[in-house]
Design brief:
heterodimer, A: alpha+beta, T-fold, 8-stranded antiparallel β-sheet, 3-stranded antiparallel β-sheet, 37% helix, globular, B: alpha+beta, mini-chromosome maintenance (MCM) complex, domain 2, 2 domains, 4-stranded antiparallel β-sheet, 2 helices
């Protein structure tokens, strides 16, 4: 009897361990992380859940969608290459002043939304900035500081009103020759938001997308606590200005320290004002926090290009928009709704 | 089965549960913090523990278009040389906090500090 009891005890021991481990495994939240170089930056997607196969599938599908938007909006694909034919933006630019181009619905949507934001910000932001960016040489091998005459000439080509859209036929047209679109300030945010839609449709409840510092979080971390997102200090890359607590939100920063060029000992940042054709110096960085990554991306650039107080006033006025600004005097300004969401360091 | 046998079985059952809980605790504890991870062309090529060591440690990483040189000192890390046109990675300077990263897009070299600690990400 004692021997039987010992055998039962051993069997019971292993049974408890086995059932316990199965239950734990089925309920344990796992992370699936994947990253890719896309849209001139490193994009990383981290998804969390109990089904690893689903996490992998959803993440891969999200990347497929981001790649599709990246291909459609790449303006540096040239000639008759495959990449150029795949890029609606390259085709629109090539056909500027010639004829409308049939494009993807998403491209029409991006252009329509971007035009609305140009109006909202009174022209502080404009996606027809392409000729000015080309004159400076941003995104190209060689850069230069253009003279005022050159700038005046290309500024005549910057006008979002000259983007003619036909939503029914899905066509886009730049009505003046030599005009060109630069979706650098909007495409990444749009692609991130599309990726989040894919994850949500796949049933993912918790995820973090980091597209070169453009952050979008889905749900809560471990389904219980807000995500902590640091805001980089614009003058000390090893420090943070503050830490945000985010749930189902996006935080995007535009700063004068990232992607700047140095010519004759002077530093010029890559965010050019569509009004003057030159970089502006009123802010060191602007972080916008809102529900979607597209709006955060557009507004971070637009507010960066405005005077600090004017930018803060606009952010306060807009519903669902919060912002943290570091102005030229390195003072931190923020919207009133952020008080419970940010810890300033 | 005697009363003593039943008692023994209950004790073994409880001990099994405790053992299981202890094993879970032991294997699920958080991994070490402050670790520099270097990736080249999507693959992890180096793991280095970040320590407050005054001695400069230099790492040569072969990227997509050429060489990237990383320097580690006093618990901080930076890119000092890189075969890329705009040198954005070098201009970024030192990083030291978990979650921070240096990304060289043309050379596909990524240096980041293990983000097991908060924050989960950094907007920049």
């Amino acid at each position: 009897m004692k021997k039987n009891c010992f055998v039962i005890a051993i069997v019971l021991f292993f049974l408890v361990m086995f059932i316990g481990s199965r239950i734990m495994r089925s309920q344990q939240v796992c992370e699936y992380q994947s990253e890719e170089f896309l849209m001139d930056t490193l994009v990383s997607i981290s998804t969390y859940g109990t089904d690893t196969d689903l996490l992998k599938l959803a993440t891969e599908e999200a990347f497929v969608e981001m790649r599709r938007i990246a291909d459609l909006t790449d303006r540096f694909s040239e000639g008759d290459s495959l990449a150029c034919n795949a890029s609606d933006v390259s085709r629109i630019n090539k056909m500027a002043g010639i004829e409308p181009v049939t494009v993807d619905k998403d491209v029409v949507n991006i252009l329509k939304l971007a035009k609305e934001y140009t109006e909202l910000t009174n022209g502080a932001f404009d996606i027809t900035i392409g000729p000015v960016m080309d004159l400076w040489g941003f995104g190209q091998e060689k850069q230069k500081v253009p003279n005022s005459l050159e700038i005046q000439k290309v500024l005549e080509l910057v006008d979002s009103k000259k983007i003619i859209l036909n939503e029914d036929l899905c066509t886009a047209y730049l009505s003046q020759k030599s005009m060109s679109l630069d979706l650098g300030a909007v495409a990444k945010g749009y692609a991130v938001e599309k990726a989040v839609n894919i994850l949500e449709n796949q049933g993912i409840k918790s995820a973090l997308i980091d597209a070169g510092g453009n952050i979008r979080v889905l749900g809560k971390k471990d389904n219980e606590k807000p995500w902590k997102v640091g805001i980089q200090d614009p003058r000390d890359t090893s420090s943070l200005v503050g830490i945000l607590s985010l749930v189902d939100e996006s935080a995007v920063t535009s700063g004068d320290y990232y992607r700047s060029i140095e010519i004759n000992g002077r530093t010029y940042n890559h965010i050019i004002s569509p009004k003057t054709g030159f970089p502006v110096g009123d802010n060191m960085s602007v972080t916008v926090i809102t529900k979607d990554a597209f709006t955060a991306d557009v507004l971070s650039t637009a507010l960066f290009l405005m005077k600090s107080q004017q930018a803060l006033a606009l952010a306060e006025e807009l519903e669902g928009i919060e912002a943290v600004l570091v102005n030229a005097d390195q003072e931190i300004l923020m919207t009133s709704g952020l008080i419970e969401k940010v810890v300033i360091k | 089965m005697t009363k003593a046998d039943k008692r023994l079985l209950i004790i073994i059952f409880i001990v099994s549960l405790f053992t299981y809980a202890l094993i879970q605790l032991y294997f699920n504890h958080a991994p070490s913090k402050g670790q520099v991870i270097v990736k080249s062309k999507g693959e992890i090529v180096k793991y280095i523990h970040l320590q407050n060591d005054e001695n400069v440690q230099r790492l040569e990483i072969e990227g997509k278009v050429g060489l990237s040189i990383i320097e580690i000192k006093d618990g901080m890390v930076r890119m000092v040389e890189s075969t890329c046109p705009e040198k954005i990675c070098i201009k970024q300077g030192w990083i030291k906090n978990p979650g921070q990263s240096i990304v060289c897009v043309p050379n596909e070299v990524v240096v980041y500090i293990d983000n097991e600690e908060l924050p989960d990400a950094i907007t920049r």
